[in-house]
Amino acid sequence: METKFKILNAVKVVGITVLAIGISIFLYGFFVSDYSAITGIGIGTVMGAIFIFLMGVFFVATEEMLEKTDKGMRSIH
User: Fold this and answer.
1) pTM
2) What angle do CA 66, 48, 42 make, to 5 degrees?
3) Residue 56 half-sphere exposure, CB side, CA atoms within 13 Å?
4) Which residues touch 49 (CB under 8 Å, ≥6 apart)?
5) pLDDT per residue rounded down to tens, the chain (77 residues)
6) CB count, 10 Å around CB of 5?
7) Chain CA centroid to CA 55, Å
8) Nearest to 26 by CA among 49, 45, 53
């Protein structure tokens, strides 16, 4: 159970860090820079942060569901 909290905390920290970087790149590209490619990089970074967070949560949920299943039990139909 403790490993799930460690994984969730790691995913949370990485996700928040990448999200903050992506938002700052997006705001810099939208308001300061003349290059529109920087805005796209910021949007992609934000989407990457969301993807990292969702995959981490999905990994923890899948691991928990695999632990809760009764392995080796067969139902007779």
Assistant:
1) 0.81
2) 165
3) 20
4) 15, 16, 18, 19, 22
5) 688 889 999 999 999 999 999 999 999 999 998 888 999 999 999 999 999 999 999 999 988 888 877 666 666 76
6) 10
7) 5
8) 45
